[in-house]
Amino acid sequence: MFHQLLTTEYLFWLVALVFYLFDAIKLVSKEKILIIETLTGKFKPSFSFNTFEIKGQQVQLLNLFLPFTGYLRLNASPNQSPSSNFEKTNEDLANLQKVVLPFKVISIISFIYLLLGPVLTFYQGLGTALLLILPLHVINLLLLFVLLLACKKKIGFSYGDVTSIFFDCLVVPAYLPHIVRKIYGKKIFSCDGYYFSLKTCSESNREELEYSIFRKFKQIFDQVDEDDLRKYKTYKDLLGIKNV
Which of 6, 40, 177, 191 could bridge to 85 as Cys pair (CB 3.0-4.6 Å)? Predict the structure, then answer.
């Protein structure tokens, strides 16, 4: 089976898979927290307690089966007013979710034919598979370009941002399913990540969230000096997180 996968036909899809996986990996610094969009459109924090790091940043993997969902990195470092910019961030996110709806369609369609590619190759060969998939891919790319230009102002993109995203998807077809995430990745939100998580969390999940945040602080406490430790403890108290 493994020998079959190394043939030229399946190697094409293996390379596509590698690029797809690579694009789902996100590096998150210790001063940031990763907030991911769920299938229902809600946002929740993604906590990583592993010690594996690259250049001092934690490695986190986004959901591979939900490429049409967004994500954002929010600040998670000590500050005296964690509640600032929450309303603006919440409003900006709600608006962005509406704007990216047509991009989600592109993401879903491209994800489906990326999955079907190896199946079609198995039954019909790579040539036939590409003949069936290529027209859909070209239409998706053209639609992407038109939507990026049409929604440029609403998203807050420059022509440089539009060109950068489109060029990435043009050169690497496996990036197209992640188009929604690429749009989110270009946006900057200044709200405190822990405060945002606590405010948008449902009451049923609040206890679990507070415990996860406490665990995260506990991990940080073991790595900082005494001055930073005092700042983090004050920050923790401002967020209302008690020792669990």
Answer: 191
